[in-house]
Write a structure and sequence with these properties.
heterodimer, A: 240 residues, alpha/beta, Rossmann fold, 4-stranded antiparallel sheet, globular, B: alpha+beta, 2 domains, 10-stranded mixed sheet, binds adenosine-5'-triphosphate, binds magnesium ion
């Protein structure tokens, strides 16, 4: 990445420890910076703390120490409602399972964040949501309920929903984990295009070496700490 | 907020059967609440109306609330005064200067007052004796004050004006003594005086005891029979607004010194009993709604438990804890509202049915169950139901709002 790229996300010395009889440290002194237009992958063995790091970066979890800045604003100093507002306007999440609301159609699911933000009238929101779905090849499925969609289709709806409020940063946790190779390739392509073509950044956790390889940069985690990814080692940390 | 309502609605509609069951609970609760409270209120209002109607609103009698102060006590107010061997002065019973008192009372707007002299007499007829309360009235003034003119069975109070030796008796007395309008009765007073009156009219209040013992005659006749010329012992007052009786009675008493008792004071223990009855009634009917509220609590907690993932994703999308709470509170509100909308008509049906029941209280005419159809009944029932529904959704809503997305996401993947 070039030094000129404006910084979107800066995380400094993040540590997250779960208190308990035996305290568990999920993330250990992790520092991450992501600039606009970057596509970053997060890899590491199962249980290494990839998801935990993503939750911290996405303001879903509060670090035990360290700070997360979004566009230079220290989000760790904000109260819960302000964090929610930041998530609503600037962040988009995609998870391994799609988490679509089953009572709503694909279109309505995509409309939810926009309606919550309330920036546009319902009619425009509907048009925008439809356009998003259409871009992801789901124009014919907009009126279907999640249970009428395949896994890959649902995941694309979830991506459309994550994009609804035109976020700066998309955080994806194994977005292709449940998909067959064709759907997986499609979703990977979409995420990559998002980062490169639309002035935003994507952070994606993945176990898939091919996916990780498409990223501009790879963050490798072992035991909660960020390490330099050894060459020739697969994202799972196993010998290739 | 519109969005929260939309989400809340979808959740409920996705669980039709469960929602309908919990809604039925509220519906039945509202209906029972309405029906029972309207009967209780109806009978209470009916009862109070009888209290108000069957006796003067205020009765000024020839007694004092507190014993007269000794001159020494008046001279040294607040001092500790001990007086021994006080010999009470014998007073002639009756209101002193009742005409001036009447004039003074009549300066108060919104009331009608008249003087009465009551006394005891014995009616002997055909070998039967009945103790009678003689009410000596001023027939020309008594319209609208005495309560019997609304209960006349034969003739009117004015018949006393036409015949100064007339008497108005209750139908119960006529029945037990086999009397008829136009008959003569002879009354003997404790003074030894005996007089004959002609029955000119009859009343029936429905209270057997009252209809048997009370008779109404011209005050002059009673004064003569009791040897108390130009005396009255009671002033009866009727108000345009019966509820004001308590205050009016107090101010009259302050001015004239004689004891003035409002209907509220004389039926204080009955009113207290009614109050206790109300407390019990509202407790019982609220219990019905509380049970119904458990239904709502049940469905909303179920929804919250089932929707943990959705809550997590909504929060990750940027919904605040308050938004999530609102979704579930709205569900309680909607179920409550639906229960009220269906429950009120059902309650009306119950009320119509209960209104058909007639019963016969001892010593009274048979009555239909009095039902209070006034708006407050509907409002109270609705408010209680809504309160119960919203309270029932409060706990699960709070729980849902407190869900931390990370906890769900960590466990869910
Ligand atoms: N509630 C918890 N209590 C204790 N330990 C936990 C808890 N949640 C997670 N962990 C531990 O924290 C560590 C990091 O978990 P995390 O989900 O971040 O790993 P991950 O890298 O995303 O794994 P995977 O690739 O399987 O998704 C794991 O070792 C896990 O066992
Ligand atoms: Mg994970």
């Amino acid at each position: 990445m070039s030094a000129a790229t404006p910084l979107l996300l800066e995380a400094e010395h993040l540590t997250r420890t779960l208190e308990g009889d035996i305290p568990v440290t999920l993330v250990r002194d992790a520092s991450v910076t992501v600039g606009i237009g970057e596509f970053v992958s997060v890899t590491g063995p199962s249980g290494s703390g990839k998801s935990s790091l993503l939750y911290l970066l996405g303001l879903l979890d509060t670090p035990t120490s360290g700070i997360v800045k979004i566009e230079g604003v220290d989000a760790t100093a904000l109260d819960e409602n302000s964090c929610a507002a930041l998530r609503l306007e600037k962040l988009g999440f995609v998870f391994q399972s799609h988490f679509l609301l089953p009572e709503f159609t694909a279109l309505e699911n995509v409309m939810l964040p926009m309606r919550h933000l309330g920036q546009y009238p319902d009619k425009i929101i509907q048009e925008k949501a439809f356009a998003l779905l259409d871009d992801l090849g789901l124009g014919d499925h907009a009126r279907k309920h999640p249970k009428q969609l395949s896994g890959g289709q649902s995941q694309r709806v979830a991506i459309a929903r994550a994009l609804a409020n035109d976020p700066l940063l998309i955080l994806a946790d194994e977005p292709t984990g449940n998909l067959d190779s064709a759907s997986s390739a499609l979703v990977q392509g979409i995420l990559k295009d998002l980062a490169h073509g639309h002035d935003r950044a994507v952070i994606a956790v993945t176990h898939d070496p091919a996916f990780a390889a498409q990223a501009d940069r790879r963050i490798h985690i072992i035991d909660g700490a960020i390490v330099t990814p050894p060459e020739g080692v697969s994202p799972d940390g196993n010998e290739a | 907020m519109r969005l929260m309502i939309a989400i809340a609605l979808r959740h409920i509609l996705a669980r039709k059967r469960q929602s309908i069951v919990s809604l039925l609970g509220i519906m039945i609760g509202v209906a029972f609440f309405l029906a029972i409270s309207s009967i209780m209120q109806g009978s209470q209002k009916d009862f109070i109306r009888r209290l108000v109607d069957n006796a003067p609103h205020i009765t000024v009698s020839d007694t004092y609330r507190n014993p007269a102060k000794q001159p020494l006590e008046i001279l040294h107010p607040g001092a500790i005064v001990e007086i021994r061997n006080v010999k009470p002065q014998t007073e002639t019973r009756g209101l002193r200067g009742y005409r001036q008192i009447l004039e003074m009372i009549r300066t108060i707007p919104g009331l009608r007052a008249s003087a009465v002299l009551t006394g005891q007499a014995l009616l002997s007829f055909a070998g039967k004796d009945v103790n009678i309360v003689l009410n000596g009235m001023i027939p020309t003034e008594i319209q609208g004050i005495t309560t019997i003119d609304e209960h006349m069975a034969h003739g009117t109070v004015d018949d006393l004006i036409a015949n100064r030796d007339g008497v108005i008796v209750g139908t119960e007395l006529m029945r037990t003594m086999s009397l008829d309008i136009g008959d003569n009765i002879t009354l003997a007073a404790a003074t030894g005086q005996v007089r004959t009156f002609k029955i000119v009219a009859a009343f029936r209040t429905g209270r057997a005891d009252y209809d048997l013992t009370q008779v109404f005659v011209d005050i002059k006749r009673v004064q003569a029979m009791m040897d108390r010329p130009n005396r009255a012992n009671t002033i009866i007052i009727n108000l345009d607004d019966p509820q004001a009786a308590l205050d009016v009675a107090r101010s009259i008493e302050n001015r004239i010194g004689y004891k003035a008792v409002s209907w509220q004071e004389s039926s204080e223990d009955i009113l207290n009993t009614l109050m206790i009855r109300n407390i019990i009634m509202y407790t019982v009917v609220s219990a019905v709604l509380v049970v119904a509220a458990f239904g709502i609590y049940n469905i909303i907690s179920t929804i919250v438990m089932e929707k943990l993932r959705d809550i997590a994703i909504l929060k990750s999308m940027g919904f605040r804890a308050g938004d999530i709470k609102r979704i579930f509170l709205v569900q309680g509100f909607l179920l409550g509202l639906a229960g009220i909308v269906t429950g009120l008509p059902l309650g009306c049906v119950l009320m119509l049915g209960l209104g058909q029941i007639t019963f016969r209280p001892p010593g009274m005419e048979p009555l239909k169950m009095p039902i209070d159809w006034s708006a407050p009944q509907f409002l109270i029932a609705s408010a209680f139901a809504m309160g119960a529904a919203v309270m029932a959704s409060w706990l699960p809503a709070r729980k849902g709002a407190a869900v931390l997305p990370v906890n769900i996401l960590r466990g869910g993947q």
